[in-house]
Amino acid sequence: MLEITDLVHSYGSHRVLDGVNIRAAEGELVCVVGPSGCGKSTLLRSVAGLIRPTGGRVLIGGQPVDRIPDNLAVVFQDYSRSLYPWMTAANNVALPLRRRGLDRRRRREAAIAALDQVGLADAAAKYPWEMSGGMQQRVSIARALAYRPSLLLMDEPFGSVDAQTREDLEDLVLRVCAHHGMTTLLITHDIDESVYVGDRVIVLTRSPARVAADLPVDLGESRDQIATRQRDAFVRLRAEVGRLVRGGSPTSTVLEKK
Amino acid sequence: MEHARVLRGVAGVAGFLAAAEIVGATGLIDDRFLPRMSTILRGAAELLVDGEFLADARASLAAWGLGLLLTVAVAVPAGLALGALPPVERAVRPLIEFLRPIPSVAIIPLAILLFSDNLHLRVAVVVYAASWPIVINTIYALRDVDPLAKETLRSFGFGPVSVLLRVALPSAAPFIATGIRVAAGTAVILVISAELLAGGAEGVGIYITEAASGNRMDLMLGAALWAGLFGVLSNTALVAVERRLFRWHDARTGAAR
């Protein structure tokens, strides 16, 4: 579904991505974790077609990304800047659907349905600034869902909300991605989160970024904020990812499982 | 709080009027040159039933409204184009910086040569003078639009024109509206100045000239008073419209106006 091959990007003489290779199968939720400032956002922006990478190739569904693909949606960290304050939640969600050629009524129906999925059926007429941070990020997620992308990109989507809201949103993303069978690339600096949410965790090295490890997450389909985090497999994988993020080399125990 | 502010403003105006009346009553100022405040206010009140003045006021109002409408129609697209295309803006910038400080009233003699029709003349000077605040505000507001807001729409595959109209323009709208409000005040000045300098058949400026030559200082100042009051009222009305339309902007910036 998603193939990133030898992706290289430099800002001037400063190399940020140094030959990144990532594959994601249809319906897979892949977490990309790495030290802050390692180029995670540059990676996401290259996949989204928002910047043109210096080198390498990105294929989505076999199609090269040479402009902004129309089967993709992005959820940014900063919901307060990414939602439009002059529009209600429903209109924010409905706006991108203009690209789908839906008429006004169908856009509105799709927006209400998406808001319902993220538990905001009652907030359709509210403005973003009348909502809490968690609710605003739910609206952003609803906007991405309503667009029905085949690839969902999320850039630190839970970085600006409190811990409790963060857990709720993690479970929400797990639920809706599984429900829609959406391929998802989620970028985070949070090690716990990458293991909890991901089907696979890709660890990037310090800048310039390369893939340090590609680790499968053997925690099964259903996850629970308390029980999953207590499991041995979770604790072990979290420790491994943590070591890799800090610059360690892969240990044999985890590699054997690959 | 709003109430207290209005009350205080009324008190200030009443205090000024009373002080002016008292100074007039002491005979400190010759009331052939500056009539007593009560005389001016009576003159202003008389104007309300003066058919000639009302016709002049209507003519000035029409020139103001038409001029402002045309200004918005010209200046907003011009500001959008300059704000959206930085290379063009950089090329035009020196010209703007040169023209803008020239007192707009100074171009009225030129306009008198160019336009034979008095309405055209007034509308033209209004458009010239009142465009600046709108153009400048629009350029700066567009420059300050959040890049992430634009990128969000771009990531859904919208092109540059859609992003300009659906994100940049609404984001900039509160600042454009402020520019329009400043322009409305400038337009009042320009309409009356053009009438004073260029003469013509009707207009508040014409009425003022005629009252002055007839030595009716009370009517002359009464007419000026109405012009000032019109400026205050149009400003207040535009502030109210802005508050209604851009509630989202105040809520977000936490501005209490």
UniProtKB/TrEMBL annotation, chain A:
ABC transporter domain location: 2-231
Keywords annotated in UniProt: ATP-binding, Nucleotide-binding, Transport
GO function term, MF aspect, one: ATP binding
Highest taxon in the source lineage: Bacteria
UniProt cross-references to InterPro entries, sorted A to Z: AAA+_ATPase, ABC_transporter-like_ATP-bd, ABC_transporter-like_CS, ABC_transporter_ATP-bind, P-loop_NTPase
Protein name stated in the entry: ABC transporter
Species this protein is from: Microbispora bryophytorum
Lineage: Bacteria, Bacillati, Actinomycetota, Actinomycetes, Streptosporangiales
From TrEMBL, chain B:
Ranges that cross the membrane: 6-29, 61-86, 98-116, 123-143, 187-208, 220-241
Membrane topology reported for the UniProt record: Multi-pass membrane protein
A GO BP entry: transmembrane transport
Domain of life: Bacteria
Principal subcellular localization: membrane
One term under GO cellular component: plasma membrane
Alphabetical list of Pfam families matching this protein: BPD_transp_1
SUPFAM superfamilies in the record: MetI-like (SSF161098)
Residue ranges annotated for the ABC transmembrane type-1 domain, each copy included: 57-242
Location of the protein in the cell: Cell membrane
Keyword match Lipoprotein: no
Keywords: Cell membrane, Membrane, Transmembrane, Transmembrane helix, Transport
Family: Belongs to the binding-protein-dependent transport system permease family.
Protein name: Nitrate ABC transporter permease
